[in-house]
Amino acid sequence: MKNMRKGFTLIELLIVVVIIGILAAIAIPKFANTKTKAYTAAMKSDLRNLVTAEEAYFSDSGKYTSYDTTKVKFKPSTGVSTPNIIPGAGYWSAT
To answer: What's this model's pTM, rounded to 2 decimal places?
Structure first.
């Protein structure tokens, strides 16, 4: 009787590794693009919230805050940098 070896051949293993590599090459750029889109969406949302907070502060005090987002009780999303507030005469801008 012949001994039958059970297992995978080197060729079969190489084919599996190549297929996994191809799938990873397709998935990684899509993940990076999704991450950028999520960051942009969080930034836009933060700016909308900051606009609302600044206008509420202006409504109460008659002036806009100067460089201090804690006065308007604004907290940016995790991973998104805090914008700089530049007040002007009757307006403000965030950079």
So the answer is: 0.58
